[in-house]
């Protein structure tokens, strides 16, 4: 079967300034690229170093051709967005001059969906929009942003939230669209099971990988550990990630007398994160809201059982065979689950957990799902 040409318009995407932002969008695109020819178009926004109106950098990044748009701020207040749109259209015209005409436009997040549906209308191309944003369940999409979301979703051929939970909350905004849930992806060549090789020294290692902001529930995790520490000292928690609240959480760990068992490692590369996961005994994600939880499937791909909160995406990912779910904001329940896992994590077969991740979230599985979606929308609108 002939490969389709898919233009991925990313609202979030890794950059030099923000290397982990939108990593899951890149993973989705890699999965799609197994079966179709993909090009990524990402607007990095206003850049005062741009000499003309806009600039488009065109490079191959990690095997994906990637066009990065940067543009000057408009001298007319509140009109820079039109320069953004102008640059997006210019990028598509650049590809057209090369003879590359997309069969499908796949936007990631509603903000990228706006230029996507405008381009789709102009050139007669079907548009698919994937959505990841936790702002929908948190009630943060208001005013102009709500108008953008409604405009994009209701004009797309298909909207693909990463979970049923997110789909429900998008619909709660009064948005009427055609939906199909498509989960996030895990790179099984990077995240894989291998027995830990470090000296355990009688300790069991818990891991959290997260953006350090209030939505991830880190204070509840630290409070839970204070309760566990009162009766045992055979554990350590590694926290990988950075964010606006890191200094606050480091201070809280000191105040709770956890400095000897909690270590903050800061931002790490994907390869380093995968190694942290392989060296851990189990993973914990105490989020207050989570539309999916990509780190959960990465931990599972490494064969690790997980503890997560039963809010949103994790409810659809974590079964009793791969881990435990607890209520959000409940440090007592979280402490009980961690205490249990410290004694029972070895009863979760790592090979079965990794296979579970492979069967549901691998490049091949999600890539085939996306390929089917692309071909369906092309056939329906052809």
CATH class of the largest domain: Alpha Beta
Which structural class do you get from the secondary structure elements? alpha/beta
Order of helices and strands: EHEEEHEHEHEHEHEHEHEHEHEHHH
Helix content: 40-55%
Let me know the average pLDDT.
96
Q: Which fold name is given in CATH as the topology of the largest domain?
A: Rossmann fold
Give the low-pLDDT segments: none
Characterize the largest beta sheet: strand count, sense, and whether it forms a barrel.
Answer: 7 strands, mixed
Quaternary structure = single chain
Strand order of the largest sheet: 3-4-2-1-5-6-7
What is the first-to-last residue Cα distance? Answer: 17 Å
What Rg is obtained from the alpha carbons, in whole angstroms?
22 Å
CATH superfamily of the largest domain: Glycogen Phosphorylase B
The global form is globular
Structure annotation, total helices: 13
| The number of domains | 2
Strand content: 15-25%
> How many strands in all?
13
